[in-house]
Amino acid sequence: MKAAAYAKVNLTLAVYPRSADGYHPLRGIFQSVSLADDVAVLPATDDLVTVRGGEAPQDETNLAWRAVEVARRTARVTQPMSLDIGKRIPSGAGLGGGSADAAATLGLLADRFGIDGETVAELAESLGADVPFSLVGGTKLVEGRGERLKDYEPISDFVLGIVVPPFTLSTPAVFDEWDRLGGPTGDVMDDQSLPPSLRGGPPIRNDLFPAAVSLDPRVGEWRDEISTRWSTGVAMTGSGSALFAFFSTIDEASNAVAGIDVPTRATEAVRPMALGWERIHE
């Protein structure tokens, strides 16, 4: 059983003060994109986690392996499994790679073990904030801790150029810094930098950006430099450090990222996707 697990980009992300449960409510437009990890989960003689090409853990702390464990426990299955992940989505970038891997793993095993959709959604919520979105993907208005998903008009009039700078940011640290700064809001991207489908809608901003810059000013320096090179607005996804901009065609985005001639962890031109993951048929 194999699947493509797609990255996500927060086209807009509003953050609200920490609630009694210790989490910050969120509201934003999330979009699946074509950058993907490959996930394979198969019966085995012993439990095994293998990660190729990335920095994700190769033990029981891997979020996708936790998806294996909750799926087996729910289905009352004891069969050992092997989990193989080929990483292309950089870690610590705000692109949701770990959540995408977990969602794809959960989806594959739900099909194999016959777990119903309502239960799968509950399991996804138990695994982490981005997993419910990654399980369904596409374009969604996401609220709460990430568990409330509302359909949003699918968007297809843009592609994205993504640049991942050569450093990572800790999600808990960024949220803590957002609290320390008093809950700032991010800069709003100007309409000229947006595709027609996003003009006149919710403001395209990321409230975590000021906190990310406070923790590591290089985020702001990279955004400003890329914006100057590309002559358009540039935003950060999630808690960083990945940055993105909108383009009209894949060739335009590809040329833009090809022009980044300084060391990065990744540069990608990506298309919007209608799913968070999909089975690979061989």
What is the N-to-C order of secondary-structure elements (H for helix, E for strand)? Answer: EEEHEHHHEEEHHHEEHEE
User: How big a fraction of the residues is strand?
Assistant: 25-35%
The number of domains: 2
In CATH, the topology of the largest domain is named Ribosomal Protein S5, domain 2
Q: What would you note in describing this structure?
A:
It is a single chain. With 282 residues, this protein is an alpha+beta fold. The protein folds into two domains: 2-152, 2-Layer Sandwich (Ribosomal Protein S5, domain 2); 159-270, Alpha-Beta Plaits (2-Layer Sandwich), CATH 3.30.70.890. 30% of the residues lie in helices and 27% in strands. The chain has eight helices and eleven strands. The protein has helices spanning 63-75, 97-113, 117-127, 131-136, 171-180, 209-215, 218-230, 250-258, and strands spanning 2-15, 26-43, 48-52, 81-86, 139-144, 148-151, 159-164, 235-236, 243-247, 266-270, 277-280. The strands form two sheets. Strands 1, 2, 3, 4, 5, 6 and 11 form a seven-stranded mixed β-sheet that branches.
List keywords for this structure.
four-stranded antiparallel β-sheet; 282 residues; 8 helices; 11 strands; Ribosomal Protein S5, domain 2; alpha+beta; 2 domains; Alpha-Beta Plaits
Topology:
Layout: E1 2-15, E2 26-43, E3 48-52, H1 63-75, E4 81-86, H2 97-113, H3 117-127, H4 131-136, E5 139-144, E6 148-151, E7 159-164, H5 171-180, H6 209-215, H7 218-230, E8 235-236, E9 243-247, H8 250-258, E10 266-270, E11 277-280
Parallel strand pairs: 3-4
Antiparallel strand pairs: 1-2, 1-11, 2-4, 2-5, 5-6, 7-9, 7-10, 8-9
Helix pairs in contact: 1-2, 1-3, 2-3, 5-6
